[in-house]
Amino acid sequence: MFCFSVQLLIELQRIGSTTIYGNLNKIILATKRWSLGDTRLYIKVILEHLQLKDLTSTICLELKSIYHCLWWFDDKNYCGFRIWSNAKGQIDDNIDNDDEEETIFDWNMIVYLPRVVQDYFETIM
């Protein structure tokens, strides 16, 4: 299974995507697109391309979230501004630019810091 995920990441790199993080459950790409519509269209094209490949035609890939800005350390330590989420499991092609921005603050490392430092860390981030 490890070889499969490596091959998938190599294919994403071959088609010009910038991979931030990838494992067996999640792939995070930097699209360098500024509008929500352009980002969703770009991801849709990538997903369609991957479905045509023999390697990835049997797996289900879907878009879960779009972040406007994401500070990434690892899968347990990140924060950003999520501007679109498919949390309800619905698949729609309507591009809704009126989605509200949601601030995600998920820093697991904060629990290992002294309490005084935690407050400063939260303020800075």
Question: How is this structure best summarized?
Answer:
With 125 residues, the chain is α+β, with helices and mostly antiparallel strands. The protein is 32% helix and 27% strand. It has 3 helices and 5 strands.
Describe this structure in words.
It is a single chain. The protein has 125 residues and is of the alpha+beta class. Helices cover 32% and strands 27% of the residues. The protein has helices at 2-14, 36-52, 115-124, and strands at 18-22, 27-30, 65-74, 77-85, 102-107. It has a 3-stranded antiparallel beta sheet with strand order 3-4-5. It has 3 helices and 5 strands. Strand 1 and strand 2 (27-30) form a beta hairpin. The mean pLDDT is 85. It has one domain (2-124): Palm domain of DNA polymerase (Alpha-Beta Complex).
Number of strands: 5
The number of helices is 3
What is the ordering of alpha helices and beta strands?
Answer: HEEHEEEH
Structural domains: how many: 1
Query: How can the largest sheet be summarized?
Result: 3 strands, antiparallel
Kindly report the CATH topology.
Palm domain of DNA polymerase
What percentage of amino acids are in beta strands? 25-35%
Radius of gyration: 17 Å
Shape: globular
Unreliable spans: none
Assign the CATH class.
Answer: Alpha Beta
- Distance separating the two termini: 36 Å
